[in-house]
Each structure stands twice: as C-alpha cells, then as structure tokens.
Design goal:
about 230 residues; mainly beta; 12 strands
C-alpha cells in the first residue's frame, strides 16, 4: 500500500532538512546527518538534526479531515570554543529559516551566453539584473542550465523571463529562458507555522554538546476515513 498523506509530508520535510549545510548558506551543517524519531544521537555524528512527528488535531467537515500535525525538530552541535548560547541561536535560526522558507525557485537559462556554475558558487547570492530579485544558490545543473535558488523573501520571484542573472562574487551567469518556477517542500500541505522553540537546556561547564528544539504546525487535508487521499 502507498504511504499515507501524513507520511509523504514527513518524508518531504526530512528531505528538505538535508539542505541544512554551510555550503548552502546556513550557520551550522546539521543536514549532513538527518535522523528520524531517535532519542539519542552519537557524538561522532554531530552536527545533526532529528525530525520527530508528533500528535495532530483533526476537524472533520463535509467528508474532509482538516489536520494540524506537529513536527518537532531537534538540532545538535558541538560547543567548541564558542559560547553555547550563541550556537543555540544559530541552530534555531537555521531551523526556522529552513522549515519556513519560501518555495525554492528553479531558474532555467538560455544556452546563449551561459556561464557554468562552479561548486564555490553554492551558498552565494543570486541576483536578477532587471527585477533586483535575490536569493541563495542551493543547487545547480550545468547540463540542463538550471539553478535551484532559495529566495530571500516571498517577493523575490525572478519573474522576468528574459533578465540577466549573476552570482555575487561568483562565477555562474546567464539570461533566463523563462520565469522562475516554484518548487514547494510538498504540495500536499496547506501551510506551516512556527509555534515554539528555543534552547533544549542550559549547558554546564562540563557539557560539550548543545541543542535546540523547534516545533512547527503543518496543516493538511485528507478524505475522511482515507488517510491516503486528498
């Protein structure tokens, strides 16, 4: 049997968490080690993030279940020589940004005048020459001339289908062949809200690891009595 709608949503966010890397512009690279619903993380796997699906509230109307599922994110990092409170705030900021970020944009470029992206461009600012839209380069494919960009705001749409685009202090460049196309974490959800979070604990002088938690409420629908369909 296929996965439930709930399972598909959890899996989609688990995949999104793998984008939590310093190369992609985040403070701490927890995405290298993504775990699901585990209580303990081995210190050799740090930094790391755990996604924990929690309970959900359900209201049924007109044959449809309107669900609000809680997803808890726990992020862990070594303290090192940095104040652990500073590390906690960086972890929390990263978690909120990644889970609540606008849809990724896929930018497709014309062949003429295209300059290939290099690995060092990932994590740098992508800028539209006409719209002034900006975002962070997340991924790229020079063969298809497509870039994946995390927009800085919801208004950064790269919606001029023929503008010149460059990478600030980077190499890749080109002219868009069409407007940017949105890629959501998953189209199965109606929305997501950050509802609570903060330091998991106040580290002592003996602690070598620090952590934060963040909870998000994800809204989605299923047919009443059928968790596999919307």
């Amino acid at each position: 049997m296929a996965d439930t709608i709930r399972e598909q949503i959890i899996s989609a966010f688990e995949t999104r968490l793998a984008d939590w890397t310093m190369a992609r512009g985040f403070n701490i690279g927890c995405g290298a080690n993504v775990f699901r619903a585990v209580q303990n993380v081995d210190p050799i796997d740090l930094p790391a993030v755990v996604i924990n699906p929690r309970s959900e509230a359900v209201n049924q109307r007109y044959g449809v279940n309107h669900c609000e599922m809680i997803l808890q994110i726990n992020a862990f990092a070594e303290i090192g020589t940095t104040n652990p409170s500073v590390i906690q705030e960086r972890l929390l900021g990263d978690a909120i940004t990644l889970m609540m970020s606008p849809p990724y944009l896929t930018l497709t470029f014309a062949a003429a005048g295209y300059t290939s992206v290099v690995a060092g461009d990932v994590g740098k600012t992508v800028a539209g020459g006409t719209t002034g839209d900006t975002g962070t380069l997340i991924d790229y494919n020079n063969s298809t001339r497509q870039w994946t960009v995390l927009p800085n705001t919801t208004s950064d749409e790269f919606d001029n289908g023929s503008e010149a685009v460059t990478i600030t202090a980077g190499t890749g460049a080109g002219t868009l062949a069409q407007e940017g196309a949105e890629t959501h974490v998953t189209s199965l959800i109606e929305g997501i809200a950050y509802t609570s979070g903060g330091p998991a604990q106040v580290p002592t002088e003996e602690d070598t690891i620090t952590a934060v938690f963040a909870e998000f409420t994800v809204r989605y629908n299923t047919l009443a009595g059928n968790p596999y369909s919307q």
